[in-house]
Structure formats: structure tokens, C-alpha cells
Amino acid sequence: xxxxxxxxxxxxxxxxxxxxxxxxxxxxxxxxxxxxxxxxxxxxxxxxxxxxxxxxxxxxxxxxxxxxxxxxxxxxxxxxxxxxxxxxxxxxxxxxxxxxxxxxxxxxxxxxxxxxxxxxxxxxxxxxxxxxxxxxxxxxxxxxxxxxxxxxxxxxxxxxxxxxxxxxxxxxxxxxxxxxxxxxxxxxxxxxxxxxxxxxxxxxxxxxxxxxxxxxxxxxxxxxxxxxxxxxxxxxxxxxxxxxxxxxxxxxxxxxxxxxxxxxxxxxxxxxxxxxx
Length: 277
Hints:
The chain has 277 residues and is α+β, with helices and mostly antiparallel strands. The protein has helices at residues 74-81, 109-123, 132-140; strands at 7-8, 14-19, 28-34, 37-41, 58-62, 65-68, 127-128, 199-205, 229-232, 249-251, 260-261, 265-267. The strands form three sheets. A six-stranded antiparallel beta sheet has the order 1-2-3-6-12-7.
């Protein structure tokens, strides 16, 4: 594995930059160090608009890993989609809402996995989709509220259908499209767009509750390759309750949708397992 060169990006976040080196463009991928730990996964029974599939709450231990600061952008997608095929072909411009710094969308689960495979081959690092556990742990960034910024949500700090309110919040904008990935505030661990803009694919096969879920941070898989896959984070076209940290959705892995994108993670080498934020 190539060496990691970590740098401080905020008072609490460390990251490394992966050069993609495509078509002579200075396009890179910022990967934020997410220090491992324990957290309570799922929503408490008293959380407004809670769904049964968000429980039971359970403690999970998560190893250290890196996660993309943003969802994969169209510029990043275009470069990696132009790299040598590993398993399946990729459309270099699949998105409806065009813009280099907007999240790529209309990408199915298999295509997101192919992106990771090409990036892994290009970089020599173990890129992949996040497990559902990793996604929620990173989204919460040590919080226990419905959103990493508190008990409610505002369209000033996230992109969703702001005409619908949640838990006493005010009405806001419904932008009817994705927005560039760097328009809204990061969470305490330096990650942006964890609420709204586009849903994000996870590795996991869908289960309708957390009964018997793994507690070691790994993806929860079955022998059914056609199983529906987990989506997290909400979307520009969805209501605020669907953007909560604990909200879980699912979709057929071969379907595309203009509400769905993804971000990548990279397993951290053992030497970084004890590095603090």
C-alpha cells in the first residue's frame, strides 16, 4: 500500500489527498481519517418520525478508516470511469444535474463498486463502499441527535425538500436539484453532505431490523447477490425525516436514480489505528 501523508484540515480533522491524474486535470479525492471507537447505532424510540427498522439500538465497535470528505463528484467520476475496466463498463456522464462539483447520480450499486475497483487498482489502496455501520458512525461524528447539527434541520445547512418541516424547524427552500458538494457545513469530523443532496450506497444487504446485526463495523451481507442494498443520508428530493442520521432506505442494486450517489471509504493500515483526530 502506498504511504499515507496526513495533514490537518481543521482543528479536529486529518486527511490525505488521492491524486486521480486524469486528462491533465488537477482532480483529487480528499479522504478524512475517521478514528475508530464505539457508538450506539440506530434511533431511540422517542425520536420524531422514527421507523421500526432503525432499531433496536445496539453498541457497535468501529475500526479506524478513511472516508471521502464529499460524495463522489461528476469530475471525479469522469476520470475514474475513463480508467481501464475491471468488471463492468461505466458511462462517463450518467448524471441528470450536470456540474463538475455536483455529486454524480444515476449510478447503480454495481457501478459504484466498479468505481471503487478501478480506484483501488489505480491507487494501490483498498477503496470500497462504506458499511452501513461506518456510514452512520461517520455521519453522527459523536452526536446522538437526529442530525449531526442538532434536533432539527434547515435548508440553509442541507439540501432537501425544505417545504416540509421536522421537529419544530422552520420551512425553507426546495431547490429541486442537487447542489455542489462543498456548499454546506461539514460535521465535526470534517465530512460534508451527510444529510441530503444525494442518498449514498452502502455495501450492506437490506435487513428490516438490527436484530442479530454484526457489532464489529463490518457490512451485513447474505448469500443473495440480488438482495436490495442499503442507502443512507437523504436527498435533494426527500423530506427532512428521511435525512436523519439513523434513517435507512433500500433499493435494487441494478437500479439507477437521480436521487442516488455514493462516497468511498478506505481501510486504514494498522499503523494508523491509534492516531487521534
